[in-house]
Amino acid sequence: MQQQQQQQQQQQQQQQQLLTDLVAGMVTSGIYTSLTYPVHRVKILLQTQDANPRILSGKVPRYSFVHSFGRLAKEQGVLGLWRGNTPYLLRHVPSISMSFAFKDAFREAMPRYDAAASPFSALAANAAAGAAAGALSLALVYPFEFATIRLAADLGSGGADRQFGNGMLSAWVQAMRAGGPLSCYQGFGVAVASMAAYKALYFGLYDTAKNLLLHEDGRRLEVTPTALLGRTALAASTTFMAASITYPLDIIRKRLVVDVGSDPSSRQYNGRFKAAVQRIYAREGLKGFYRFYSYDMVFRLGGGVLLTRIGTQDHQDDCAAGMFGVLRS
């Protein structure tokens, strides 16, 4: 009886600790996301400006990374640097817990493989779980992602000059009036492919390599500076590989989201993946698929190092993986 009570108390303590860690992680992520959002906004603007009619017509000069922050503050006010931050928070913060919860659930439903004995089977299982988790979590928060992209890409100074409305709700209403209730999922197919591929590569590479490289005698390594450095380096390298491979899909997805017009003939891509690929390559070459790439890598890897924290128990999330993974946007 006493042993049963102790087990119940231990379970309650573990649940409380898990909830505390989850809330702390979400609050920390929310603060970090808001503080660094101007960089994310400039990223979207630079990735999509070659699809913006005002840029293409010459009405608005092209933006460069170095001058973007000052120009936006001058043209749209200092708060304009945070245009789109609200839907970004609503999309970004919940996806942290959802991605890991879904990944663990999918992985539990799959056969277990020993990474040392069956590395390819373990990689496939981890990749499949990561891909399914990424796709499902994205489906739930995609309207917020849609609003973030449109608001961040908007070059209007305010009021009637705004291209995509004055806020998240108006961005949704404008899209639905033009194309129906599913318009807020414009670009979703490419987004799912991009996110699923990224999560599959990221979690597959990270989880498999972690099991092969970061264990001793089947046990998790102790928390030491060497272990922290090793796990951080592993998370950074897998992030770089996964992001580099899937980056062009992210560019295409954002171009499709901001491709608007009063009728299909006035749109550049008309919602088609193939048309977007052909148009971008014809006008911008291969570099068109890697707009803002170098800055993005520095920002993502630097943010991951800043936020890395190691879990010490067998069933805790690997926060080194988590912090790098959620910086994918």
TrEMBL record:
Family listed: Belongs to the mitochondrial carrier (TC 2.A.29) family.
UniProt topology in membrane: Multi-pass membrane protein
Substrates-to-products reaction catalysed: ADP(in) + ATP(out) = ADP(out) + ATP(in)
Keywords: Antiport, Membrane, Mitochondrion, Mitochondrion inner membrane, Repeat, Transmembrane, Transmembrane helix, Transport
Solcar repeat residues: 16-109, 121-212, 226-317
Organism encoding this protein: Tetradesmus obliquus
Complex formation: Monomer.
Pfam families to which the protein is assigned, alphabetical: Mito_carr
InterPro entries linked to this entry: ADT_euk_type, MCP, MCP_dom_sf, MCP_transmembrane
PANTHER family for the chain: ADP,ATP CARRIER PROTEIN 1-RELATED-RELATED (PTHR45635), ADP_ATP TRANSLOCASE (PTHR45635:SF14)
Superkingdom in the source lineage: Eukaryota
Location in or out of the cell: Membrane; Mitochondrion inner membrane
Name the UniProt record assigns to this protein: ADP/ATP translocase
Cited function: Catalyzes the exchange of ADP and ATP across the membrane.
